[in-house]
């Protein structure tokens, strides 16, 4: 599986680099645009991405202890720290971390989930478009479907997700069909992707988001 892990990291690094390029052209006003993450601006999402990209397992343990065993509190601190930094600093931090393979103690595929979903959290409100590689999106959807911590397991219970562009089927039950990117976004609670999906399970998924 080492080869698979290298391929996943290569995609992560490519997506980070692409996001840095998109961010490089933003105005100061655009950094303060509301992202798809409730309560977070574009600046906040970038601060989180840059900080997490260099968060090794060892550093995570230390942060986890200082945060009272709360991963959510770690993220809150990342965001708050980013609000005191200039956008140019945040962009430089993300650029410096593009090829990092540091990660919290989570499966490597979770790094695809993070960079793709947060990439869309930023791009969609700004009207930016990105054609993502589909190589690992199916695996990313499967990861979220089984992830109890993020709420994905509960959100997708009893639903069968069918990726129309990747030939992947995740789960059993009412069908929800569409591009893997749209499935991933909806699986992570982004309502913006619901109109891109079809099938008898869409209404139920909508009620859960």
Automatic annotation (TrEMBL):
A single MF term (Gene Ontology): metal ion binding
Residue ranges of domain Mycothiol-dependent maleylpyruvate isomerase metal-binding in the record: 15-102
Domain of life: Bacteria
Gene3D superfamilies, A to Z: dinb family like domain
Coiled-coil positions: none
InterPro entries tied to this protein: DinB/YfiT-like, Maleyloyr_isom, MDMPI_metal-binding
Pfam families: MDMPI_N
NCBIfam families on file: maleylpyruvate isomerase family mycothiol-dependent enzyme (TIGR03083)
Protein name: Mycothiol-dependent maleylpyruvate isomerase metal-binding domain-containing protein
Species, as recorded: Mycobacterium dioxanotrophicus
